[in-house]
Amino acid sequence: MPVPLLDVNAQNLPLQDELRATFDRVLQSGRFIMGEEMEAFEREVAEMVGVKHALSVSSGTDAILLALMALGIGEGDEVLCPSFTFFATAGCIARTGATPVFVDSCPVCFNIDLEDAAKKRTAKTKAIVPVHLFGQAADMDAVMSFAAEHSLKVIEDGAQAIGAKYKGKSVGSIGDFGAYSFFPSKNLGGFGDGGMLVTNNDSLAEMALMLRNHGMNPKYYHKYVGGNFRCDALQAALLRVKLREYTGYTEKRQANAQYYTEKLLQLEGVVQAQQEDCGCLESQTLKYQADAAKLVLPVAYDHNEHIWNQFTIRVLDGQRDAFREHLTEKGIGCDTYYPVPLHQQECFADIPKHALPVCEQLAQEVISIPIYPELTQGQKDEVISAVQAFLTSKV
Ligand SMILES: *Cc1c(COP(=O)(O)O)cnc(C)c1O
C-alpha cells in the first residue's frame, strides 16, 4: 500500500458535512471578503496563540510582506534571514526593496544560527526574520537579545509552526510580528491560500490593518500605499472548522514523530541529533557526524513544543538521493525541503555571496518522510520497514 507524503483528504473528508454547512452559511450571508467570519477566526487564533492582534491575510507570504511594509523596511535596508528555508522568507524582503542577508543554520535544529547572524550584521541591518522551520521554534531568547542589542525588528516566520511553542510561548507571539500560513500542506491547512499576521503592538497592528487594504482609512482616502492582502470570508469560515480540531492534529503528529524515533533508533546506523550539539544553544564546535551513522533523526528540544510540520532526516555519506529513490520505489512519499539554499538561487545572484557551509550541506542531506496526523499504524510501519530495507542493503 503506497504511503503519500501528505493526504489532505484523510483530514478534510471526515469534516465534509460541517464544511458543506459552513459553505452554505457563507453563501447565504452574501459576504465574501473579510467580515464577521474572518473576525471570529482572528479572535480564535489570537486566543490560541496568546496575542493581542491577529489579522487574516491572503497568504503566509503576504503576512511576511505586510509585516515588513508595516515596519517601514525598504530600499537601502538589510534584513537577516536564514538561507535554508522556503523562498517566501527572503522573497518578501527583496520585494520591499531591502536586501536579504543570508545566514547559516544549525545542523541540529535546522534553524537560524545567531552567531553567524552576528557576523553578517552591518549598520544597515534593520530587521531579522527567524523561521521556525519544520514546526520547531528557533532560539528566540537569542534572537530577541541580539535584536535588542542592535535595535533590530523581529518578524517571526511561523508559516510552518502555528501553535508551536518556545519556552511555553507560542511562536509568532514573541517578536514584533509573527506570520502564519494556511497553505494546504501546513499544519492548519486551508482550502486554498490564506495566512495570518499577529502582533502585540497596537500601533503596528493599526498600520498593518490599513496596509492590508490599500492603506485606506476612511474608505477611498489613502494615507499609505498598501495592497490587497485581504482574506476571503469562505476561507476563514472553513478554517474555523479545522481550528477546532487542531490540538488533536498536533498530538497525532507528535505521536507519529515519537513512534518513528523509537522504532528507527533501534536500527543499525540510525542516530538522533543531540540537543547538546546545537550550535544555537551554546557556541561550540558542532559534532557534525556521528561515527558509523547513516541516518540522523530530528530532535525536539525540551524547551520547545515541536509541531512536526515535517519529519526531516539527514542522510549521510552522499546517500540522500539513493535513499529517496529507494523510498519512492517502495511507494513511500518523500521530498527534500529544500534542495537549493536561497543564497544559491538564480534570482539572488546579484547579492554578495558568503559561504554558508551548513545550509549547503543540509541541502544535500535532508529528506522528509510522511508525518501527517492521519497516518495509520500500518502506514507508519511500512515507512519504517522501507527505511530498514535501505539500511540493510547498505551493509
Ligand atoms: C509556506 C511558507 C511560507 C509562505 O506561505 P504561503 O501561505 O504559501 O504564502 C513562508 N515561509 C515558510 C517558511 C513557509 O514554509
Automatic annotation (TrEMBL):
One of its GO terms (molecular function) is transaminase activity. The keyword Transferase applies. The keyword Chloroplast does not apply. Keywords: Aminotransferase, Pyridoxal phosphate, Transferase. Belongs to the DegT/DnrJ/EryC1 family. This is DegT/DnrJ/EryC1/StrS family aminotransferase. It comes from Rubritalea spongiae. The lineage of its organism: Bacteria, Pseudomonadati, Verrucomicrobiota, Verrucomicrobiia, Verrucomicrobiales.
